[in-house]
Design goal:
mainly beta; 152 residues
C-alpha cells in the first residue's frame, strides 16, 4: 500500500509542476491618449491545455480575472485508398478516408472581469507551440474605452 500511496503522491506533484505562470505588463492609455498607469499580468496555464487563467492588476488595486483561449486551426485532408482484406489477402474496394489535424495558431483571446469593468484582450503568441510561456504581445480594451498594450 505504501508504494501506491507514494506513486499517487508523486503523480500529484508532477501534475502540480505542470502549471506554468508567465508574467507580463502593460501601460494603460487613458481616453485622452496619455499613459495613465502601469498594469501587471499573471497568466497561469496548465500542461496540455489550450487556455489559461489571467489576472491583471491595476496600480489602484483593481483586479481583472478571466480566461484566455488559444485559437485552433483545423485542417481536413481527404484521400482515397484501397482497403486491404486480411482474410482474402488482397485489396478490396476503394475507400474514402479523412485525416483531420488540429494546430495551435498564434492568436489568443479572452475577456477579463473586475467588480466594475471588463477588458477584452487579443494576444499574439511568439511561439504557439510553447503557449503563453513562449512570450508575446497584445492589446486589451477596457469597457470604459481605455486601451492597454501588453507584453508577456
Amino acid at each position: 500500500m505504501k508504494t501506491t500511496l507514494t506513486g499517487a503522491a508523486a503523480c500529484a506533484l508532477m501534475l502540480a509542476a505542470c502549471t506554468q505562470t508567465t508574467t507580463g505588463s502593460g501601460q494603460l492609455t487613458a481616453l485622452n491618449g496619455y499613459a495613465a498607469e502601469r498594469v501587471t499580468f499573471d497568466i497561469r496555464e496548465e500542461f496540455l491545455e489550450d487556455s489559461a487563467m489571467a489576472t491583471a492588476k491595476m496600480k489602484n488595486g483593481e483586479l481583472f480575472q478571466g480566461k484566455l483561449v488559444i485559437e485552433k486551426a483545423v485542417s481536413d485532408n481527404l484521400g482515397v485508398g484501397l482497403n486491404w482484406n486480411i482474410d482474402k489477402k488482397k485489396f478490396g474496394d476503394l475507400a474514402l478516408f479523412e485525416n483531420a489535424k488540429s494546430e495551435s495558431t498564434s492568436t489568443a483571446r479572452g475577456i477579463l472581469m473586475s467588480h466594475a469593468r471588463s477588458m477584452e484582450c487579443r494576444l499574439t503568441l511568439a511561439s504557439p507551440g510553447s503557449g503563453f510561456s513562449g512570450g508575446g504581445v497584445g492589446s486589451c480594451r477596457l469597457s470604459t474605452g481605455e486601451t492597454l498594450p501588453i507584453q508577456f
